[in-house]
User: Fold this.
Amino acid sequence: MMIPTPIIVGKTAQIGRDSFARVDLLRRTVHYGPDRNTTCAWCGQPGKVNVNGFNRLFQYGAHSDGLLTQPHFDEHVFCSVQCRRVYYCP
Ligand SMILES: [Zn+2]
Assistant:
């Protein structure tokens, strides 16, 4: 399945930390166009639509401790962290 390119990538926020793995858990907001064709990879919901008609979903990622590493984001987008968790750890 093709993952469409987000039209707007919003802010990245730290939403948690796995201190055992020394990894920060990240979430960034991605906005897709008003066609609502992009849906949560797990539950299929199209995500919340903002005032401009953009479809808002989340992309989750991780950033290991260490100055040289870049955050790594999931290939898929989800409507919530719960959907992401079930998708990767069924
Ligand atoms: Zn979902």
The chain has one domain: 8-88. DSSP finds one helix and five strands in the chain. Residues 81-88 form the longest helix (8 residues). Helices lie at 81-88.
